[in-house]
Specification:
Length: about 210
Protein backbone atom coordinates (compact mmCIF):
# COMPACT_ATOMS: atom_id res chain seq x y z
CA UNK A 1 0.00 0.00 0.00
CA UNK A 2 1.36 3.40 -1.02
CA UNK A 3 2.19 5.73 1.86
CA UNK A 4 0.03 8.86 1.90
CA UNK A 5 1.72 12.10 0.92
CA UNK A 6 1.53 14.68 3.71
CA UNK A 7 0.80 18.17 2.35
CA UNK A 8 1.52 21.15 4.61
CA UNK A 9 0.41 24.68 3.72
CA UNK A 10 2.48 27.55 5.14
CA UNK A 11 1.14 31.06 4.65
CA UNK A 12 1.29 34.59 6.05
CA UNK A 13 2.18 38.07 4.84
CA UNK A 14 5.19 39.04 2.75
CA UNK A 15 8.28 39.19 4.98
CA UNK A 16 6.46 37.33 7.74
CA UNK A 17 8.85 34.38 7.96
CA UNK A 18 7.06 31.70 5.93
CA UNK A 19 10.25 30.48 4.29
CA UNK A 20 12.12 30.34 7.61
CA UNK A 21 9.35 28.24 9.16
CA UNK A 22 9.31 25.95 6.12
CA UNK A 23 13.10 25.54 6.29
CA UNK A 24 12.89 24.74 10.01
CA UNK A 25 10.55 21.86 9.13
CA UNK A 26 12.76 20.68 6.26
CA UNK A 27 15.89 20.70 8.41
CA UNK A 28 14.20 18.67 11.14
CA UNK A 29 13.65 15.72 8.79
CA UNK A 30 16.98 15.27 6.98
CA UNK A 31 16.36 11.57 6.40
CA UNK A 32 12.76 11.87 5.23
CA UNK A 33 11.70 12.70 1.71
CA UNK A 34 10.54 16.29 2.20
CA UNK A 35 10.30 19.01 -0.45
CA UNK A 36 9.13 22.62 -0.54
CA UNK A 37 6.99 23.97 -3.35
CA UNK A 38 6.85 27.75 -3.72
CA UNK A 39 3.45 29.19 -4.60
CA UNK A 40 5.33 31.94 -6.47
CA UNK A 41 6.32 29.35 -9.09
CA UNK A 42 2.68 29.27 -10.13
CA UNK A 43 2.24 32.89 -11.17
CA UNK A 44 0.31 32.87 -14.43
CA UNK A 45 2.10 32.84 -17.76
CA UNK A 46 1.88 36.35 -19.23
CA UNK A 47 3.76 35.83 -22.48
CA UNK A 48 0.65 36.85 -24.45
CA UNK A 49 0.80 40.36 -22.91
CA UNK A 50 3.10 43.24 -23.79
CA UNK A 51 5.87 44.06 -21.28
CA UNK A 52 4.05 47.31 -20.42
CA UNK A 53 0.93 45.30 -19.54
CA UNK A 54 2.91 42.72 -17.54
CA UNK A 55 4.58 45.23 -15.23
CA UNK A 56 1.13 46.27 -13.97
CA UNK A 57 0.57 42.77 -12.52
CA UNK A 58 -0.68 42.71 -8.93
CA UNK A 59 1.29 39.77 -7.56
CA UNK A 60 -0.55 39.91 -4.24
CA UNK A 61 -3.98 39.16 -5.77
CA UNK A 62 -5.42 35.61 -5.96
CA UNK A 63 -6.01 35.98 -9.71
CA UNK A 64 -2.26 36.32 -10.32
CA UNK A 65 -1.84 32.59 -9.60
CA UNK A 66 -2.50 29.56 -11.77
CA UNK A 67 -4.28 27.69 -9.01
CA UNK A 68 -5.59 24.93 -11.28
CA UNK A 69 -2.05 23.93 -12.28
CA UNK A 70 -0.86 23.81 -8.65
CA UNK A 71 -3.85 21.67 -7.66
CA UNK A 72 -3.20 19.31 -10.59
CA UNK A 73 0.49 19.05 -9.64
CA UNK A 74 -0.23 18.28 -5.98
CA UNK A 75 -2.75 15.64 -7.01
CA UNK A 76 -0.19 14.06 -9.37
CA UNK A 77 2.57 14.12 -6.74
CA UNK A 78 0.20 12.47 -4.26
CA UNK A 79 -0.33 9.70 -6.81
CA UNK A 80 3.41 9.11 -7.07
CA UNK A 81 3.93 10.99 -10.35
CA UNK A 82 6.68 13.55 -11.04
CA UNK A 83 5.70 17.02 -12.29
CA UNK A 84 7.45 19.85 -14.14
CA UNK A 85 7.12 23.00 -12.04
CA UNK A 86 7.31 26.38 -13.82
CA UNK A 87 10.14 28.83 -13.13
CA UNK A 88 9.01 32.47 -13.01
CA UNK A 89 11.20 35.17 -14.53
CA UNK A 90 10.66 38.36 -12.50
CA UNK A 91 12.74 40.43 -14.91
CA UNK A 92 10.34 39.61 -17.75
CA UNK A 93 7.21 39.37 -15.56
CA UNK A 94 6.25 36.01 -17.01
CA UNK A 95 7.26 32.36 -16.93
CA UNK A 96 10.61 31.38 -18.31
CA UNK A 97 10.77 28.54 -20.81
CA UNK A 98 12.55 26.42 -18.20
CA UNK A 99 10.90 24.18 -15.61
CA UNK A 100 12.25 21.91 -12.91
CA UNK A 101 11.25 18.33 -12.19
CA UNK A 102 9.76 17.67 -8.78
CA UNK A 103 9.61 14.02 -7.77
CA UNK A 104 7.07 12.64 -5.30
CA UNK A 105 7.95 13.07 -1.63
CA UNK A 106 6.60 11.81 1.70
CA UNK A 107 6.03 15.42 2.82
CA UNK A 108 5.31 18.42 0.58
CA UNK A 109 5.46 21.92 2.06
CA UNK A 110 3.48 24.39 -0.04
CA UNK A 111 4.61 27.89 0.90
CA UNK A 112 3.17 31.23 -0.21
CA UNK A 113 1.03 34.23 0.64
CA UNK A 114 -2.25 32.81 -0.65
CA UNK A 115 -2.02 29.03 -0.31
CA UNK A 116 -5.04 28.93 2.04
CA UNK A 117 -7.20 31.22 -0.10
CA UNK A 118 -8.61 28.50 -2.41
CA UNK A 119 -10.81 25.86 -0.76
CA UNK A 120 -9.70 23.22 -3.27
CA UNK A 121 -6.09 23.74 -2.15
CA UNK A 122 -7.03 23.72 1.54
CA UNK A 123 -8.84 20.43 1.08
CA UNK A 124 -5.61 18.81 -0.14
CA UNK A 125 -3.68 19.89 2.96
CA UNK A 126 -3.16 17.82 6.09
CA UNK A 127 -1.69 20.67 8.14
CA UNK A 128 -2.35 24.38 7.57
CA UNK A 129 -0.06 26.98 9.17
CA UNK A 130 -0.35 30.77 9.33
CA UNK A 131 2.79 32.72 10.27
CA UNK A 132 1.51 35.83 12.04
CA UNK A 133 4.02 38.70 12.17
CA UNK A 134 3.41 42.40 12.87
CA UNK A 135 3.17 44.76 9.88
CA UNK A 136 6.13 46.88 10.99
CA UNK A 137 8.47 43.88 11.23
CA UNK A 138 7.34 42.62 7.84
CA UNK A 139 7.98 45.91 6.04
CA UNK A 140 11.44 46.24 7.63
CA UNK A 141 12.32 42.75 6.42
CA UNK A 142 10.92 43.50 2.97
CA UNK A 143 12.94 46.73 2.71
CA UNK A 144 16.17 44.95 3.65
CA UNK A 145 15.49 42.06 1.26
CA UNK A 146 14.44 44.12 -1.74
CA UNK A 147 17.30 46.61 -1.39
CA UNK A 148 19.98 43.96 -0.84
CA UNK A 149 18.76 41.19 -3.14
CA UNK A 150 16.75 42.98 -5.81
CA UNK A 151 18.50 46.35 -6.04
CA UNK A 152 15.33 48.33 -5.49
CA UNK A 153 15.09 51.86 -4.12
CA UNK A 154 13.57 52.61 -0.72
CA UNK A 155 10.89 54.85 -2.29
CA UNK A 156 9.75 52.16 -4.74
CA UNK A 157 9.52 49.54 -1.96
CA UNK A 158 7.47 51.82 0.29
CA UNK A 159 5.19 52.86 -2.59
CA UNK A 160 4.51 49.23 -3.53
CA UNK A 161 4.00 48.19 0.09
CA UNK A 162 1.53 50.94 0.97
CA UNK A 163 -0.24 50.89 -2.41
CA UNK A 164 -0.56 47.14 -3.03
CA UNK A 165 1.09 44.79 -0.54
CA UNK A 166 -0.53 46.02 2.69
CA UNK A 167 -4.08 46.47 1.28
CA UNK A 168 -3.94 43.01 -0.37
CA UNK A 169 -2.71 41.49 2.90
CA UNK A 170 -5.70 42.78 4.81
CA UNK A 171 -8.16 41.97 2.00
CA UNK A 172 -7.03 38.48 0.99
CA UNK A 173 -4.23 37.05 3.17
CA UNK A 174 -5.12 37.88 6.78
CA UNK A 175 -8.70 36.52 6.40
CA UNK A 176 -7.23 33.06 5.61
CA UNK A 177 -5.93 32.88 9.19
CA UNK A 178 -9.31 31.40 10.16
CA UNK A 179 -8.51 28.28 8.12
CA UNK A 180 -5.17 27.60 9.83
CA UNK A 181 -4.76 24.65 12.18
CA UNK A 182 -1.92 26.48 13.92
CA UNK A 183 -1.19 30.22 14.01
CA UNK A 184 2.50 30.89 14.68
CA UNK A 185 3.15 34.35 16.20
CA UNK A 186 6.60 35.71 15.27
CA UNK A 187 7.44 32.81 12.98
CA UNK A 188 10.54 30.66 13.37
CA UNK A 189 11.55 32.32 16.67
CA UNK A 190 8.47 30.67 18.20
CA UNK A 191 10.36 27.50 19.15
CA UNK A 192 7.40 25.89 20.94
CA UNK A 193 5.16 26.14 17.87
CA UNK A 194 7.87 24.73 15.59
CA UNK A 195 8.42 21.83 18.00
CA UNK A 196 4.69 21.07 18.09
CA UNK A 197 4.51 21.03 14.28
CA UNK A 198 7.59 18.84 13.89
CA UNK A 199 6.29 16.41 16.51
CA UNK A 200 2.98 16.13 14.65
CA UNK A 201 4.73 15.51 11.33
CA UNK A 202 6.98 12.89 12.92
CA UNK A 203 3.95 11.05 14.33
CA UNK A 204 2.27 11.01 10.91
CA UNK A 205 5.46 9.76 9.22
CA UNK A 206 5.74 6.99 11.81
CA UNK A 207 2.22 5.68 11.15
Amino acid sequence: MKKKTIIIGVTGGSGGGKTSVSNAILENFPDAKVAMIQHDSYYKDQSHLTFEERIKTNYDHPLAFDRDLLIDHLAALSQGESVDIPIYDYTKHTRSEETYCQEPRDVLIVEGILVLEDKRLRDLMDIKLFVDTDDDIRIIRRIKRDMQERGRSLDSIIEQYTGVVKPMYHQFIEPTKRYADIVIPEGVSNVVAIDVINTKIASILAE
